[in-house]
Amino acid sequence: MADELGSGPRGRVHFDWARAGHIFRDAPGHIYPTSSASRERYVRLFEQVASRPANRLPDAPLPQPAVAAGVQVYA
Amino acid sequence: MTKEEAMMLDAQDLPVDAAQVYEKVIAASDADFDTFMNLAVLYFVCVDGGYATHHGLSREFINDAWERAYELLDEAESRFGKQSEITFWRYYFRFVVLGEAPLIETCKDLLQSGSSLVPSFYLFTSPGGDLYRSQALQLLERVKEGTTAKQRYIRSILAKRLNVVNAPE
Which of A57, B52, B129, B144 has the most CB atoms less than 10 A away? Predict the structure, then answer.
C-alpha cells in the first residue's frame, strides 16, 4: 500500500478516501473488509504504517512514472 | 492464437500468459474493441502493487505493462475512433497509479455524452455516487458473470460498494 496515502515529508499521513474503491475490494493483494467499522480499522492501520519512515519499501515494484510522481510504498 | 484462448488464460488469472496471447491477437488486424480494452485493463491491474506482488511480476514487466496500457488505448482510438471508455481509462489509470486528482466531473461528462457505462463504477463509488446507482447496477449486470481482469476489476469495486453500504455496523 502507499500510493493511496499521499507522499511528501512523513508527518501524520492521511488516508485518501478518493481511492478507497480501488483499495478495498475482493482481489488478489487487496483487503475486503465486510463492514464500515472494519474498513475504518484498516484505514487507521494504513495511516500508522505509512507514517513510519522505517516502513518504506524503496525497492517496491512501481512503474517509473509512479516513482517520478513521488509514489512511495510502505508495508 | 484466438481471443477465446486469451480470455481463458485471463479467466485463470494467469496475467503474463494471457497478455502474451492477447498481444498476438491484437497484432492481427481483426482484433475487436473488447480485446483492446481487456488487455489495457489487464496491464493496469498488473501495475497495482498488491496484484503485482501476489503474482511475483517483475519490475520490467510492470514498466512495460504501464507503457503498453496507454499504447493500447491510443491504438484502439485510432482503430475504432473516439470512445468514452478509452478516455475514461486514460484518466482512471493515472488517478489510481500516479495519484492524480479525482476525475468526477470528467466522468460525469463521459457518462452523459458517451455510450459506455464503464465510468459509472467510478462515479458510483465517489461522493454523491447514489445518483449513478442505476447505471452502475446495469454495468454490474453486464460484468457479474464475466471472467476477464477488466470484468473482475469492475465487479470487485461495485460489489464492495454495495456490500459496505448494506453492511451492519
Answer: B52
Q: Judge if ipTM > 0.90.
A: no
Contact A29 B50 (CB under 8 A): yes
Name the one residue in this structure whose C-alpha cell is 499521513: A13
Contacts of A20 in chain B (CB under 8 A): 125
**Cell numbers placing A66:** 509512479
Q: Which CATH number characterizes residue B97's domain?
A: 1.25.40
Domain count, chain B: 1
Domain housing B133: 3-166
Q: How far is CA A5 from the centre of its chain?
A: 5
Beta-carbon contacts of A70 under 8 Å, excluding residues fewer than 6 positions away, are A7, A8, B99
pLDDT in tens, A3-60: 455 544 557 899 999 999 999 998 988 988 888 899 999 999 999 999 999 999 998 8
Q: What is the pTM of this model?
A: 0.91
Given A20, A30, A63, which is nearest B66 (Cβ)? A63
